[in-house]
Design goal:
It comes from Micavibrio aeruginosavorus (strain ARL-13). The chain is mostly helical. The protein has one domain (about 5-59). The chain is about 55% helix and about 5% strand. It has a two-stranded antiparallel sheet with strand order 1-2. The longest helix has 10 residues, at about 50-59. The radius of gyration is 12 Å and the shape is globular.
Length: about 60
């Protein structure tokens, strides 16, 4: 299920901006490329170190 407005994928735009995450459990990794780019460029929530540390703790 994807949310589009005038053929624009709103979910993709949100993940690219770093204001949403790609939850692969639900998306099947559909937004993984957008999320990787947002992380690399430290956009939005990816600016925050605590979120990156949280992921390390789960491993």
């Amino acid at each position: 299920m994807y949310c589009t407005i005038d053929d624009l994928d709103v979910g993709s735009m949100m993940v690219q901006a770093g204001i949403a995450k790609d939850y692969t459990r639900y998306s099947g990794g559909y937004y993984r490329v957008e999320q990787a780019k947002a992380k690399k460029e430290k956009r939005g929530l990816w600016k925050e170190q605590w979120l990156l540390d949280e992921k390390k703790e789960k491993k």
